[in-house]
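Before the break, one more example. Copy the sequence into your notebook; we will annotate it together after we see the structure.
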Amino acid sequence: MRPLTTFPAARGNVNSLQFSADGRLLLATSADQSVSLYDVETATRLGDPIPTAAPFIVPGFLRPDGAVLAVTTTEGVALWDLDPDHLVTAACRLAGRNLTEAEWATYLGRLGPYRATCAIAGES
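Here is what the structure looks like once it is written out:
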């Protein structure tokens, strides 16, 4: 037996791992009170680790369908929307342009072949 792949390290010691039901996402919670979300196929961390406020409990949970991430905060619980269609819209809004093919492959490749993410005048 040997590992199939490895993932970029979380910031602290990992204290729990959770897969989405389809096995596409992996949530790693860390003793430093952060959570990291990974794309399993590419072994890529999706965004930066998310800080939490859970010193004595597991700080985050992934909904089995992978569409929502719940994170403990000082105000209570924050829900992160992970719906792929919503992420495409957010990526377009934040970048202010279509994603490059490399960006698509890295962040949204599991949605299928590259396509324009935005309807911006003058950009294809």
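The longest helix spans residues 84-95. The chain has two domains: 14-81, 83-124. Try to locate both features in your own notes.
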